[in-house]
Specification:
Elements (H helix, E strand, L loop, with lengths): L16 H7 L9 H11 L8 H11 L4 H15 L3 H33 L5 E6 L2 E6 L8 E5 L7 E13 L1 H4 L5 E3 L16 E2 L4 E13 L5 H9 L7 H30 L4 H15 L4 H18 L2 E3 L4 H7 L2 E4 L11 E6 L7 H13 L6 H7 L10 E6 L7 E7 L4 E8 H5 L2 E5 L5 E3 H17 L3 E9 L14 E10 L6 H10 L3 E5 L4 H10 L7 E3 H5 L3 H10 L2 E3 L3 H13 L4 E4 L6 H6 L2 E5 L4 H6 L2 E3 L4 H42 L7 H12 L23 H29 L4 H23 L12 H16 L5 H5 L6 H29 L8
Parallel strand pairs: 9-18, 9-21, 14-17, 18-20, 19-20, 21-22, 22-23
Antiparallel strand pairs: 1-2, 1-3, 3-7, 4-5, 4-6, 4-7, 8-23, 10-17, 11-12, 12-13, 13-16, 14-15, 16-17
Helix pairs in contact: 4-5, 4-9, 5-10, 5-24, 8-9, 8-23, 9-23, 9-24, 10-23, 11-23, 12-13, 19-20, 23-25, 23-26, 24-26, 25-26, 25-29, 26-27, 26-29
Length: 850
């Protein structure tokens, strides 16, 4: 039976709780483990992602999506029809081997990343077997009863059973900017979605308050699932992805022009049209770096695995490049600069003296609250051991980021009180009286100046300072937001979060990497300045949220770049800061873990969160840290730059030796009475030169590539391709001269000699172009070295094996190998010299390694 499609559940907001649980065959105590397992099998994981098996099939088929590859396969079958079976079969085998290798590399990379993502799964609280349990969101099924608090992602379309001061951000679902208040109830069946105030929808998250809800629909059956399926939403393209796409277009243009010209000229020279067509297509394959998608996937997944070993989990692979390019990191201070373990300093009255009464009231407020748990309340609750059984909570108004306070209505046999704790200025706004140390109640106007002076003094000393107030209440009336007025200000709670032991050194190391740290905090400017002095930020420039509000866009854009600390920042201002920094041409990372950090995480080039963050922050982040520490981030940045560098090495190889060789062959085919290489020989050349590059992800990376942020620069690549491609062609034509003029080579000898020299020069030139340093000072990694040696031995040996006949090769005289050594050596030395000149002249004009 398909419970999700039970009549009446399509308009579940029209049902009361008993009717809904009956239709879903469950109770308000939740499902048992057996029922949940059965429903998970029936409905599948609660996710909008495609089935992995289907993805594997599509991934394999995608290896053949290149138009050039498809034409090559068609031409091969046409050759079989024309009785040229041997060559056609060899071509098909080479294409198949290349595609299978690419598939295995990409599939392995995808599996590795999926395993890493399991480490940062989102969880939610459900009733299972009548107990509260934490389970992955993907395991939620229809009929589950979920408990929701501030920061939680809504795991499925749900009916609210109970709620308290519940506000939901539905922007991801409805586009509605402001939080929507939700509560239990029964609504009309035909009410529009924007007015379904008793329902929660997948894709939204809890801003404040708490709720108990019945999950009705999951996965693609949800409203958000239907929208996502119809729109096929795509993640915004990163700078790295954009660069790869533009690079692909560049090669496509060159390839298309070259193929048309070569094919036309060969036909005019009265060569067989099919052979000429196959030769042109093979050249196109040689010019196209077929393994580039696989190489990128392997590089990124290998980088992701290395970063995971450093406690950094990458959720979106393409963000690794931006991670390496990042030159500004914006972060809150808690847990990154500081220990993240808030400690209670004291509870003091308005005269600055310790007060047990304030400690007691703050303890009652912190220990009985049931909303979003936080380090501040934990620190307060841990500092007093008292009997909680004597008290009962009558009502609670959870903390939210607009009011910036938390109220608990509590009672015992003697009294009924509403106790509020929160940001001092927000507390003063709801108080009209003050209680002095002697217990006297006076007007706020009499003591306000003294309160502000004490607040400033505590802040100057580096303490985070909260206000505590109270108000007599009655058992007949539950305290609500409107009752937060006319309260009595009692005093202060002072807290401190000490800086991490090595944070000053870590900030200096980030600066050495070219990454500027900017703090964004809700704390006041005095606290922020005190902390800055403790971590070595001398004379920091501080900008407050109130100052930002008064600035024009142009003025703020200018000031954001110069500012070190943004203090007293409102939640919506974080995103504005990120936007201003990006407009100035910076690659900006943002590290956040709170409910109000999601917009800034989305906006930043690199959204960074921690595994202990609220669900909405983890979901919005590109990268999740298993350890909330800047030192971990430092290691991750280095791994990101290594990954970027190794990806660029493949591109440099493809735009130097490969491009030069294919261009030389195209030119040689115009004056030779035969093809310089047969189509099957070209494809074999391409396969062998690509093989060592599969190990590029494990290659060593020079320190010079790690020291500064790296950026994609297509202009740099074009210049590199022209200079080193032409240099390759010069030595190609030198080889042609040796074969034709010195050795008087015939067709097979020429093709064999050219094949041997082109493959060897292509695999060895990688050792030069892979580094900006001398290739003798920057040795390749172990696996790249092994792969290069294997290909070298295979190429030298193939003319002496039975495979030679398959590919149309023949044995060469030994003197040719001596001449080839001279040519290849001269090529490598010339490339090394050209490389030094190239970087010396270009580095001042480009930003790739800047």
């Amino acid at each position: 039976m398909d419970i999700q499609n039970t009549p009446g559940l399509d308009a579940f907001w029209h049902l009361n709780s008993d009717e809904a649980t009956k239709k879903l065959s469950c109770s308000q105590n939740g499902l048992n483990a057996g029922e949940a397992t059965q429903r998970l099998k029936q409905y599948g994981p609660n996710t909008l992602k495609a089935n992995t098996n289907t993805s594997a099939i599509l991934l394999f088929l995608s290896q053949f999506k290149s138009p050039v590859t498809l034409l090559l396969i068609i031409a091969a079958f046409l050759s079989i029809g024309l009785k040229d079976v041997t060559d056609a079969v060899i071509i098909l085998i080479i294409v198949a081997i290349s595609s299978v290798l690419s598939f295995l590399q990409e599939r392995g990379a995808a599996n590795a990343v999926n395993e890493l993502l399991k480490m940062v799964q989102l969880h939610c609280t459900v009733f299972r077997d009548s107990e509260e349990k934490e389970i992955p969101v993907e395991n939620i099924v229809p009929g589950d009863i979920v408990i929701l608090n501030a920061g939680d992602i809504i795991p499925g379309d749900s009916l609210i059973l109970e709620s308290q001061e519940l506000f939901i951000d539905e922007a991801a679902f409805t586009g509605e900017t402001y939080p929507v208040e939700k509560s239990a109830g029964v609504l009309e069946a035909n009410i529009p979605i924007s007015k379904r105030t008793n329902s929660l929808f997948m894709g939204a998250h809890v801003i404040s308050g708490k709720a108990k809800a019945l999950v009705v629909k999951t996965g693609k059956q949800t409203e958000f699932g239907k929208i996502s399926t119809s729109l096929q939403l795509r993640t915004p393209e990163t700078d790295f992805e954009r660069g790869i796409r533009r690079f692909g277009y560049l090669l496509m243009e060159i390839t298309l022009i070259l193929v048309i010209i070569i094919f036309g000229i060969n036909v005019l020279l009265d060569r067989p049209p099919l052979t000429s067509f196959m030769f042109s297509l093979a050249l196109a394959v040689g010019l196209t770096p077929q393994l580039l998608p696989a190489i990128i996937s392997v590089n990124l997944s290998t980088g992701a695995k290395r970063m995971a070993a450093k406690q950094v989990i990458v959720k979106r692979l393409s963000s690794i490049e931006n991670f390496g390019s990042m030159n500004i990191l914006c972060s809150d201070k808690t847990g990154t600069i500081t220990e993240g373990k808030v400690k209670l300093k004291d509870t003091i009255d308005i005269d600055g003296n310790h007060s047990d009464k304030i400690l007691k009231y703050a303890w009652l407020n912190a220990s009985f609250q049931q909303g979003f748990h936080n380090p501040i309340d934990d620190a307060i609750a841990a500092n007093l051991e008292d009997d909680k059984s004597a008290y009962t909570v009558q009502a609670e108004i959870p903390y939210d980021f607009i009011r910036k306070r938390l109220t608990i209505q509590i009672k015992n046999t003697r009294e009924n009180l509403a106790i509020t704790k929160g940001a001092v200025n927000n507390m003063l706004a709801i108080c009209d009286r003050v209680e002095t140390a002697s217990g006297q109640i006076v007007k706020m106007a009499v003591k306000k100046a003294q309160i502000l002076k004490q607040y400033e003094q505590s802040s100057n000393e580096g303490y985070r300072t909260l206000g505590v107030a109270y108000k007599p209440a009655t058992a007949e009336h539950n305290f609500v937001k409107d009752d937060e007025a006319g309260m009595i200000f009692l005093g202060f709670v002072t807290l401190f979060d000490p800086p991490k032991k090595d944070v000053q050194q870590t900030i200096a190391r980030l600066n050495d990497l070219g990454v500027k740290l900017k703090l964004i905090t809700g704390d006041n400017a005095l606290v922020a300045k005190s902390l800055a002095g403790q971590v070595g930020l001398s004379d920091p420039k501080i900008l407050t949220g109130s100052q930002m509000q008064k600035m024009s866009t142009a003025a703020l854009a200018h000031q954001c770049v110069l500012t070190d600390i943004f203090a007293e920042v409102e939640p919506n201002q974080k995103e504005r800061i990120i936007v201003m920094l990006k407009r100035a041409g910076n690659v900006v990372g943002f590290m956040g873990d709170g409910i109000n950090d999601a917009p800034a995480l989305h906006t930043a080039d690199v959204g960074i969160s921690v595994n202990t963050a609220v669900d909405v922050a983890k979901e919005a982040a590109d990268i999740v840290l298993l350890d909330q520490d800047l030192a971990v981030l430092y290691e991750g940045i280095i791994e990101g730059r290594k990954t970027f560098t190794n990806t660029m090495k493949y591109i440099f190889m493809a735009t130097s030796a490969n491009f030069g060789n294919m261009f030389s062959m195209a030119g040689a085919s115009l004056f030779l009475p035969f093809l310089p290489l047969l189509p099957k020989q070209i494809l074999l050349t391409n396969l062998l030169t690509d093989f060592p590059e599969m190990a590029i992800a494990t290659d060593r990376v020079d320190a010079v590539n790690i020291q500064t942020p790296q950026r994609w620069d297509l202009g740099f690549i074009k210049r590199f391709m022209i200079i080193f491609g032409l240099l390759s062609s010069v030595f190609d034509y030198l080889t042609f001269g040796v074969l034709l003029l010195f050795m008087h080579a015939k067709e097979k000898e020429f093709q064999t000699g050219w094949f041997v020299e082109s493959v060897i020069s292509a695999i060895l030139i990688v050792l030069v172009v892979r580094t900006r340093l001398s290739f003798l000072k920057s040795l390749p990694g172990k696996y790249l070295s092994i792969a290069t040696v294997l290909v070298f031995v295979f190429v030298i040996a193939i003319p002496f094996t039975s495979m030679a006949a398959w590919f149309g090769f023949t044995q060469l005289p030994l003197k040719y190998y001596g001449l080839m050594v001279l040519i290849v050596t001269a090529y490598l030395l010339s490339a090394e010299f050209a490389k030094r000149l190239f970087y010396r002249r270009m580095l001042s004009k480009i930003h790739l390694f800047k």
